[in-house]
């Protein structure tokens, strides 16, 4: 159902938004959210209006819906659901952004967003209708930066080492594993189901992939990592993390990137094999790519070179229209996506068509 | 009961040893070990005979009695129980060691040990009857090096930061906490019982100490660490580790030095609060001071300076006679010791009294 908000000033643009109405238990259910249509806001000085082209669907979005402290505050009841996305500047009263610019920003689950000149909003070079927006969302943005800084900064794979990546078919895992391969490591993915495992090997070029649903994970890890695991890039936590901790090589590095196995339940079983961090003199470290904000250009330069050389590929799972945002978010947890999940809301326009 | 072994060549020296007869379940019980008396071995070229003065009793000794792989192999049934200790060279056919030298080595639970010129055997400077052997065992040896490299290499406390140390009255914890204080941090110990907590504050100079037996640990951590825990030096694992992980400050460093809470049972409950490593972008790292062997001199130079300046104190809990070794080892787990546990077997002799 679409309801219209009551705004003081009326714009000619209608902005459809998905608001949080109730904190979800597990997957988002009917009644947790509401799709509303409101006039797009009038701009104040220093603001620009961005029309969302793609909403990025990350597991982090789900964490922001719980009433838990984190590196960003929880989304409040009645607020637009927060998400990182990409869009095009359609009006501007901000010198940092020209009409037509493609920018990455916290679009949220909505068609129009007001932005300011802040660190969350970054223009993308190039003619607006020629920017490869999917590549930006998969590689030249927070997802690529997360894979890059986690793998190169903490994992530090060396030639000949064995690297394991969980959620290997996902947006971050697929890029992280490719970075490790470029560094000369042998890379073993972990993913759920034969379809994903095939994509991990055939599309993303991993050396092998373990189907944690169909295989005995400790046995498969022993088979694929006979000398132990030198680097583990963990997106999932839970029993998969524990199994890999049981297989660490001496001086191993465990990169904690996510705990998707527990985002729905809030339940975090402790990995009893953490004691191997001691016996193997290994480290386990959490990180947030936003801490490396000042070095994003460095990351993107490497990622772009690898992409241009054909060493780094990306895939997207595209949903259509704002009505799909909730289904797309739930899909992260039911395991439908290969690569980055995006919801397409609009096409970018060539400059000639923008007023 | 003392039995005599059957050796081909007979020495004039009798060597009493404690052998492992059965793998212990939990604390060592009667029948797990046997005290035997055998002739001390004749020396081959390149060997020296060391008379044990003090056996060092570490939690690691207990781990070597289980049939588990580790950085050293398990003690075999029928073998002398392995332990690091200190002693005096009484015969030498090795150019590296002169009669009279005080050396640290893997003495084991026995009165005499044959040593070679290897990395496990290190001479201590000074006239033999004037060497402060207790200081060597507490500070200028593997215990001090463990505290030093764990705290300075991984913990890296900064002035004004809050550092928590568990088993704070123990050999390693007491030194680690003092090193953090010297670095300018506020140091909170965790220990079991009022007697130990008093020693942690009054003898070792910590700013505070939490009695985990008598206090609610999460509440006490909140009270004593209002801005969170920047560095945690963990000797115990288990629920105490989990409680401190629940209180981490951003960018915290968790030093994994031991898991004494589970050495007896082999049971390692996983710390569910490990997810804070992610939300706080913190790290948890295991280490072994032996990996830093080449830098021990550097550690000892710092430790000696601090000791000489009165900034670093040490305490020992002394048992007497080889018959006490098993009781002393069990005492680590029943919580009797403050500072380093040693078993005294003999006095060092001045050079004039050695043949």
From TrEMBL, chains A, B:
The keyword Ion transport does not apply. It comes from the Bacteria. Gene3D superfamilies: Medium-chain alcohol dehydrogenases, catalytic domain (3.90.180.10), NAD(P)-binding Rossmann-like Domain (3.40.50.720). Residues 26-343 form the Enoyl reductase (ER) domain. The keyword Endoplasmic reticulum does not apply. InterPro entries: ADH-like_C, ADH_N_2, ER, GroES-like_sf, MDR_fam, NAD(P)-bd_dom_sf. Keywords: Oxidoreductase. GO terms for molecular function: oxidoreductase activity, acting on the CH-CH group of donors, NAD or NADP as acceptor. PANTHER family: ALCOHOL DEHYDROGENASE, ZINC-CONTAINING (AFU_ORTHOLOGUE AFUA_7G04530) (PTHR43205:SF42), PROSTAGLANDIN REDUCTASE (PTHR43205). This is NADP-dependent oxidoreductase. It comes from Mycolicibacterium duvalii. The lineage of its organism: Bacteria, Bacillati, Actinomycetota, Actinomycetes, Mycobacteriales.
């Amino acid at each position: 159902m679409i309801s219209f908000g009551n705004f003081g000033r009326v714009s000619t643009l209608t902005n459809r938004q998905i608001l949080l109405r109730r904190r979800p238990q597990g997957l988002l259910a009917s009644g947790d959210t509401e799709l509303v249509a409101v006039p797009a806001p009038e701009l104040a000085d220093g603001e620009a209006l961005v029309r969302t082209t793609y909403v990025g669907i990350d597991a982090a979005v789900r964490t922001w819906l719980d009433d838990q402290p984190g590196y960003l505050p929880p989304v409040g009841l009645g607020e637009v659901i927060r998400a990182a996305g990409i869009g095009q500047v359609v009006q501007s009263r901000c010198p940092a952004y020209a009409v037509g610019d493609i920018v990455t920003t916290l679009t949220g689950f909505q068609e129009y967003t007001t932005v300011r000149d802040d660190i969350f909003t970054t223009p993308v070079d190039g003619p607006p209708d020629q920017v490869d927006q999917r590549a930006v969302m998969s590689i030249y943005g927070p997802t690529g930066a997360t894979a890059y800084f986690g793998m190169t900064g903490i994992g530090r794979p060396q030639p000949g080492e064995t690297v394991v990546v969980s959620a290997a078919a996902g947006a971050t895992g697929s890029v992280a594993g490719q970075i490790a391969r470029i560094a000369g490591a042998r890379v073993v993915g972990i993913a759920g189901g034969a379809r994903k495992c095939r994509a991990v090997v055939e599309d993303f070029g991993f050396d092998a992939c373990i189907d944690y649903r169909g295989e005995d994970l400790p046995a498969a890890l022993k088979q694929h990592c006979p000398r132990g695991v030198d680097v583990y890039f963990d997106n999932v936590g839970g029993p998969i993390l524990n199994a890999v901790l049981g297989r660490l090589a001496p001086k191993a590095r465990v990169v904690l990137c996510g705990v998707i196995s527990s985002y729905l339940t809030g339940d975090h079983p402790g990995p009893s094999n953490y004691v191997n961090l001691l016996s193997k003199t290994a480290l386990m470290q959490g990180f947030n790519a936003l801490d490396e904000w000042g070095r994003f250009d460095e990351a993107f330069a490497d990622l772009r070179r690898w992409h241009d050389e054909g060493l780094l590929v990306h895939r997207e799972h595209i949903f259509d229209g704002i009505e799909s945002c909730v289904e797309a978010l739930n899909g992260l947890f039911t395991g439908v996506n290969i690569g980055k999940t995006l919801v397409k809301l609009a096409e970018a326009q060539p400059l000639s068509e923008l007023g």
